Amino acid sequence: MKNVIFTVGVLHFLYMEAALALPPPEDTPEEVLRTEIITEARSPVDGKPLTAAQYAELKAQLENRQPQDPQVNPKLRELIFLLRLRHQIRLILPFIDF
Fold first, then answer.
1. Number of C-alpha atoms within 13 angstroms, CB side, residue 7?
2. What is the DSSP pairing of strand 40-42 with strand 49-51?
3. Is there a contact between 88 and 81 (Cβ–Cβ < 8 Å)?
């Protein structure tokens, strides 16, 4: 008799835990959220809110734009090269301290 009462108590506890683990009923399921059509967006350039048409137009403009080669200060370029060279030397000769 005690085993039956204990088993019922454990099952009741497990079912209550399962019920507490469920999301709230007003929470929108992920499957529904995946199928929603997003009609508003933010500009990747400055973060301003855009409509879907404005976002599509801006995206097309950004894709058609010619990529520009970034201009780096020659001293900075040389410093980066030396740091990379130092890193490679340390990988090969770890006992040398610079």
1. 4
2. antiparallel
3. no
